[in-house]
Amino acid sequence: MLELMKVETFYGQSQVLFGIDLKINDGEVVTLIGRNGMGKTTTIHSIMGIVRANLGNIIFDGEQVIDWPSYRIANAGIGLVPEGRQIFPNLSVVENLIATESNHLKNSNKWTLDRVFEIFPRLKDRSKQMGNQLSGGEQQMLAIGRALMTNPNLLILDEATEGLAPLVRMEIWNCLKELKSEGQSILVVDKNIEALTDLADQHFVIEKGKVVWSGNSDMLKANKEIQNRYLGI
Question: pTM of the full predicted structure?
Answer without folding.
Answer: 0.95
